[in-house]
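Re: How this chain folds, sequence and tokenised backbone to follow

Filed under: protein folding, tokenised backbone structure, sequence and structure records.

Contents: The amino acid chain and a row of whole-number tokens, matched residue for residue.

Body of memo: The sequence and its backbone structure tokens, given next.
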Amino acid sequence: MAGGTVSQELIDTYQREGVVCIRGLFADHVDELRAGVQANMDAPGPYASENKKAGETGRFFDDYCNWQRIPEFAEVIRDPAITDAAAALMGCDRVQMFHDHVLVKEPGTSMATPWHSDGPYYFVEGAQTISFWVPLDPVREASLRCVAGSHRWEKDVLPTRWAAETAFFEGDYMPVPDPEAEGMEIREWEMEPGDAVAFHFRTLHGARGNTSASRRRAFSLRLVGEDARYVERPGATSPPFPGHEMTAQQRLREDWFPVLR
């Protein structure tokens, strides 16, 4: 649906469940994003990680906050079809950039993306938040998995370090649940390059390892709406954005986080 509109059904589902799949939203940008991901992997940024636990096989690379130095990313984030979709799902007119994120699982990568909620890692809160997770290769078993309605939970989920499985920082958080063992409603889709899963910052999500013979490249775009405000956390956030000089309840500074719509 590149260039199309978001249906009322998708909007209602996003508000209720905190996650929807939008077919083809990034379809016009697949080659561009593949080039950007390769540029990112060839020259990783300061936050790049090689996620690996003892006994795991394969390579799970991720990196974020590179849109200002990778022109392919900078071009994609300003597509009006994407920002219009974000505004419709969030229920707002104003859309502001937060950050980009690249996640690559090479063939035979056994490590799963652990269940987590992005919001507690961030220094921003609000009802109007959205992430687009966009596969750049066909995905079947290694697709994103999201727990329906988890964005409405009373407490945030404890943020943890993916490989070490230790708390990112302490606070009043609920333990990371086991959605399958606890019978939660998990949403996941077989996807083609350019499809997008849209999910709220508080939505619990994860992904299996990549046991296929093909790479699983994914680009994520994190955006916020009108009610998003800076909040203090118990420790350094991820991304950290050192030197931002923002104070509690302030909107994100527009020179660092440009308004896209």
